[in-house]
Amino acid sequence: MANIKFSIITIVYNGENCIKETLDSVLNQSYKSYEYIIVDGNSKDKTLEICDNYKDNITKIISEPDNGLYDAMNKGIKLATGDYILFLNCGDTFFDKYTLERVVKEIKNLDNLPDLIYGDSIEVDQKNILLYKKARDYHLIKFGLFTHHQSIFYKLKCIKNLDLSYNLNYKIGADYDFTAKFLLTCKNVLYVNFPICKFKQGGFSSKKWFTGLIEQFLIRKKALNVNIIENTVITILQLTLVFIRRIFPFLYNFYRFRKIRR
């Protein structure tokens, strides 16, 4: 099998405080068959100045106004030329410098490249504790994303064949919609039993959780054709978990995470 080429895409806007750790994480990967694309939303701070220090190792940088995160992600897809794309946005990092190398070892002896590859994730809490989040089975897509978006590699050829893009009508759940539609035509999916990404808790989606629940309800209805009764039950279960996480975080953490170190 020929070398697998990855398209790593970073979306950033006014990210001077976090872009460097993402850049270092990507450019220090031991596996070097990748292109690195930066899509900047016309930052007003020192983001582009920092990126310019790495320009010799970045495949492409564009900086222009956009209509939000998912619009920028669509731009990244159009620029990509690799076998797989993965979004590692500003502040996100790979778990370690061997992440891409480990993924390639998992797939290099397969007869056919998987359409989708996914793994586990590491969340970093406010006390800088690393929490290991095991991915769920992808067949459980109707219950929400089975892992974090930053831990999913999508085969670019499939995206192009489907003419698939992120739906800008969703402000929180477009990644869920994108993945659900992608899976409907997947011929094979591979789970790798190790973490892909590391990122900090408290992002935009966690702050807009109610909007996220509404959008997931609509996506299950439109993309996955889940009937209204089952859809409502799933939403109630998700709402219950949200309240448990907010009111009894130690219970949620005990159930969902494994602490790995301080």
Number of helices: 10
Q: Classify the secondary structure makeup into a structural class.
A: alpha/beta
Contiguous low-pLDDT stretches (5 residues minimum) are: none
Strand content: 15-25%
CATH architecture grouping: Alpha-Beta Complex
Largest sheet, in brief, is: 10 strands, mixed
Q: What's the order of the H and E elements?
A: EHEHEHEEHEEEHHEHHHHE
- CATH class equals Alpha Beta
CATH superfamily: Spore Coat Polysaccharide Biosynthesis Protein SpsA, Chain A
Structure description:
Helix content is 37%, strand content 22%. The protein starts with 5 loop residues before the first strand and ends with a strand. The mean pLDDT is 91. It has one domain: Spore Coat Polysaccharide Biosynthesis Protein SpsA, Chain A (Alpha-Beta Complex), CATH 3.90.550.10. Strands 1, 2, 3, 4, 5, 6, 7, 8, 9 and 10 form a 10-stranded mixed β-sheet that branches. It has 262 residues and is α/β, with parallel strands linked by helices. It is built from 10 helices and 10 strands.
Compact overview of the structure:
The protein is an alpha/beta fold. The protein is 37% helix and 22% strand.
Mind sketching the topology for me?
Elements: E1 6-12, H1 19-27, E2 34-40, H2 47-52, E3 60-63, H3 69-79, E4 84-87, E5 93-94, H4 99-107, E6 116-124, E7 130-133, E8 152-155, H5 156-162, H6 174-183, E9 189-200, H7 204-207, H8 209-222, H9 228-247, H10 249-256, E10 257-261
Parallel strand pairs: 1-2, 1-4, 2-3, 6-9
Antiparallel strand pairs: 4-8, 5-9, 6-7, 6-8, 7-10
Helix pairs in contact: 6-8, 8-9, 9-10
